[in-house]
Amino acid sequence: LFCASCRNNGELLAGPFLYNESFPDALPMVSSIAPANHTVCSGSSTLCKLVSWWNKNCSNGSNDSAILMHQSDWLLWLLHGEYGVCDYNNTLKVGYDPEIGSYPSWLMSQPYSHMLPSSVRAPGVPIGPIKEDVRSQYGFSNDCVVCTGTTDSIAAFLAARTTDAGKAVTSLGSTLAIKLVSRVRVEDARFGVYSHRLDDQWLVGGASNSGGVVLRQLFSDDQLVTLSKDIDPSSPSPLDYYPLPKSGERFPVSDPDMEPRLEPRPDSDAEYLHGILESMARIEVIN
What we know:
Elements: E1 2-6, H1 27-33, H2 46-57, E2 66-70, H3 71-80, E3 85-87, H4 105-108, E4 119-121, E5 126-129, H5 132-138, E6 145-147, H6 152-159, E7 168-172, E8 176-182, E9 194-198, E10 201-208, H7 212-218, H8 221-228, H9 269-286
């Protein structure tokens, strides 16, 4: 997600964009300025979202005070009140280079560069004290400090307490993401692979568009609970699907035109759910 926000009063200028939402209209412009196969050279990158929004709303010089805010930037801003503060995990897909600790020159020369977070820090470092009105309203202590955030899948990785090179963590949320500890940085947009910095190591990963959002489209929460009880996990499903919420896949295949495969649908909803879950597991194995 990201928001376009006004520096002066925090007014939202656009609704949030989902991080797996694609903006192919901006991809030619982004690809023309970025190095070949850079992480931002994907229609779902934050930079493509920013460029698409800029072209439609700011190319005539209006909204000069607009800034880009990732979801954690927005939430933390509500707590500390400082504009333009972000972490180097969230800014990766807008073009920030965590290896050199700055935005590259090809990005800073663009007319929308003023919208980028101006203060990019390591995840989990102090930003400043919590705002007094928030502190008093919710009863936080006087020494409460707000720190920079990270992405959801990296938070899931950290919760797994895996630090050895070669170890990987898969997290299933709205999409299916994988992070693998590496001593070297690996990136290639052709295959949907990118690397986040983790202190002095790297998290090499990618994210499939398959995941919980597909289940939400097909079943209610109650149905998922009830139908799951009728699934025998020791018996493999004969169904072979590729569950996507709509056209487009990012990883392990980078194909914006890839179509979902959710047919044939058996008469039994439990068998259908079984087939979808096993198909997601196969995607995880490929990852």
